[in-house]
Amino acid sequence: MSGIYRDIAPLRGGGVAARVPITVIEPEGHARGAIVVLHESREFAEALLELMRSLSIEGWIVVAPNLFHRNGSTDAVFGDELFADFDACYDWLIGRGVFGDCIGVLGFDSAGTAACLVATNRPIGAAVSVAAPGIITPLDDRADALVTAAPRLQAPWLGLYGTDDPATPADQLETLREAAARAAVATLLVSYPGLHHRPDHPGFDPADADDADVLLDAQSRIFDWFDSHLR
After folding, report:
1. What percent of the chain has pLDDT over 90?
2. Which of 98, 197, 220, 227 is deepest in the core (most CB within 10 A)?
3. If 0-12 CB within 10 Å is exposed, 13-18 middle and 19+ buried, where does residue 112 land?
4. Contact 68/114 with Cβ under 8 angstroms?
5. CB of 35 within 8 A of CB of 119?
6. What is the rounded CA–CA span in Å between residue 118 and residue 104?
7. pLDDT at 212 over 80
8. d(Cα 184, Cα 172) in Å, to the nearest integer?
């Protein structure tokens, strides 16, 4: 069915209660593939929903799992729990006729870090991380630092960053760019001046043409990356 709705995705090897709540937006007509959207909040900001709707309009099934479904957890999800939740979404999509190499993953902030780690461990089609921290120092004892993980990427990876983000200093971005370049797949790290590269919560000044241009470029790169690699 087209439109937005909620469903559940069973965890592999789990019982009746082992299910991941998911929010789904389906396109009109035939889907060309799917994108799993990881996000670090229980709620969807309107800007994030609008981005998800835009991806759906382009023909993608968009699936966003609730990463905090385990006993009311509010901690970032990494390690086995992250991969289990992603696998549940992956299996749900495969069950709807989506080919594995036409499934991508998109994440923001710590969930952007998670998206990159998924792309080092799962045979997906493409990955995009926005403002993903944990570049030099791991965010969690279940997560590798991105400079360690990036050379192991198995799927084409795009990283979008703001040069003025204190969580991702410019010198660390250059180190990550070099690490990602050692991967056996296509990688691209783009850094923007300021912090207005976030299509999930833009908040830019409409009177500032530079802010609007950065946001448009960042969103276009996300769409183009999936267009190019999910085939």
Report:
1. 68
2. 197
3. buried
4. no
5. no
6. 10
7. no
8. 21
Position 39 scores a pLDDT of: 85
How many Cα atoms are found within 13 Å in the side-chain-facing hemisphere of 28?
A: 2
The pLDDT tens digits of the residues spanning 155-179 come to 999 999 998 889 999 999 999 999 9
CA 92/CA 219 separation, integer angstroms: 26
Q: Which two tokens stand for residue 59?
A: 């023909």
For residue 203 the two structure tokens come to 């908040």
Closest CA to 161 of 105, 213, 108: 108
Q: What is the pLDDT of residue 75?
A: 63
pTM tops 0.70: yes
Q: At 188, which helix (H) or strand (E)? A: strand 187-192
**How far, in Å, CA of 164 to CA of 73, rounded?**
31
* Cross-strand partners of 26: 3
pLDDT of residue 35: 98
Structure tokens at 55: 């991806």
51-60, 69-78, 137-146: the lowest-pLDDT one: 69-78
Angle between helix 209-229 and 46-57 (nearest 10): 40
Q: Calculate mean pLDDT across residues 42-62.
A: 90
Q: Identify the CA nearest to 196 among candidates 169, 219, 170, 222.
A: 219
What contacts 171, CB < 8 A, 6 or more positions away? none
Structural domains in the chain, sorted by start: 3-229 (3.40.50.1820)
| pLDDT for position 74 | 54
